[in-house]
Write a structure and sequence with these properties.
By secondary structure, the chain is mostly helical. The protein has 14 helices and no strands. The longest helix has 29 residues. The two termini are about 40 Å apart.
Length: about 350
């Protein structure tokens, strides 16, 4: 779903290709010689934005018939089933080492079990529009954490400005000048914690799964399976069996998993391979817009002026934190380096 599954697929592909795959100078993977999909990548990009943008509406509908842990369990079961079929079709092998499975269990907790459950619980008391906007703060949390945990990420004026602008947007969404009146603190806090959980898991994946030897699809499918097992152990302890299976909530949960946590992974995997992670991750900025439109149009959720304004500020801040300043090109008269000097990035 949304940034959750996106972070899973991009982080695992980054971890896998960081030490092996050749890249261009821009950091975008070299184009594959494989035949391109029949559908243009822009159409798949738009479909992915819609799938993840509607995820928060589906969570809200699912919680009308099931407990939050049950929504998360059904979602993970459906998503894992889709990836299991894809793995069988492509004859992917599961990870073989206990160490890899251990790291995947930790990643499953922070990237799937914990945030999925927190979002489901949060939408018991907050609108899906607010949950979708809270999800958009993940790049901000990720930038702040990466400055501490990843030595290769250095603070720049642009990124620090983006971080400050993003959190100003969060305060705008929450109506800080009004004393946060009418805001459900517990639900909002759970949604923000869910968005924080994603970059924690992403950083863990980058630090532990590089060079694991397994394919990205196998790692992602195994991770979802472990997340399903974790929630399956917890759900009976905190919920009772549902009295029935109401149609709309059941369809919402199945769609949430099969589309948002299954099919979307395969779509994002193809986009990253075709156009690179930078372009593929731009889908993040469309998700809160679609989530807000869906919540207002289909669920009748109320929208005050500060919510869309704050959301735009959040997205602008997130875009700044992900941007990089372009290096100036040498002029035509710039002296060339001696042939004995080597660039630090060259072998």
């Amino acid at each position: 779903m949304s940034y959750a599954v996106e972070v899973v697929i991009v982080a695992l592909m980054t971890a896998r290709t960081a030490t092996a795959a050749p890249t261009r100078a821009t950091g975008v993977p070299a184009p594959s010689s494989a035949r391109r999909p029949a559908l243009d990548w822009r159409i798949r990009f738009a479909a992915l934005s819609l799938i993840w943008g509607f995820s928060f509406l589906l969570i809200k509908v699912g919680t009308e018939g099931y407990a939050p842990f049950q929504v998360t369990l059904g979602r993970l079961l459906s998503g894992t089933a889709v990836l299991a079929v894809a793995m069988m079709v492509r004859r992917e092998r599961l990870p073989r080492t206990a160490r890899t499975w251990g790291h995947l269990a930790v990643a499953a907790f922070f990237l799937n079990a914990l945030p999925f459950s927190l979002f489901a619980y949060s939408e018991l008391t907050i609108p899906s529009t607010l949950a979708g906007i809270c999800n958009a703060t993940s790049p901000l949390w990720g930038m702040a954490l990466s400055l501490v945990a990843l030595s290769e990420d250095r603070p720049t004026r642009r990124r620090v400005a983006g971080l400050g602008l993003g959190f100003l947007g969060v305060l705008t969404v929450l109506g800080a000048w009004q004393g946060f009146s009418g805001l459900d603190f517990s639900g909002t806090a759970m949604a923000l914690l869910a968005s924080l959980s994603y970059p924690v898991g992403w950083i863990y994946v980058r630090r532990t799964l590089a060079g694991s030897g397994s394919s990205t699809l196998a790692l992602t499918g195994s991770q979802l399976f472990l997340g399903t097992a974790q929630i399956a152990l917890v759900t009976p302890l905190f919920t009772s069996a549902p009295d029935g299976f109401p149609l709309l909530p059941t369809l919402a949960v199945v769609a949430l998993g099969a589309l948002g946590t299954g099919l979307a992974v395969l779509m994002q995997y193809g986009l990253v391979q075709e156009v690179g992670p930078t372009t593929a991750q731009m889908v993040t900025y469309f998700i809160p817009v679609i989530a807000t439109a869906a919540g207002v149009a289909l669920l009748g959720e109320q929208l005050t002026w500060n919510t869309p304004v704050g959301a735009l500020i959040v997205l602008a801040g997130a875009a700044l934190t992900q941007s990089r300043a372009r290096k100036p090109k040498p002029g035509p008269l710039a002296p060339s380096r001696p042939t004995t000097e080597r660039h630090p990035a060259q072998p």
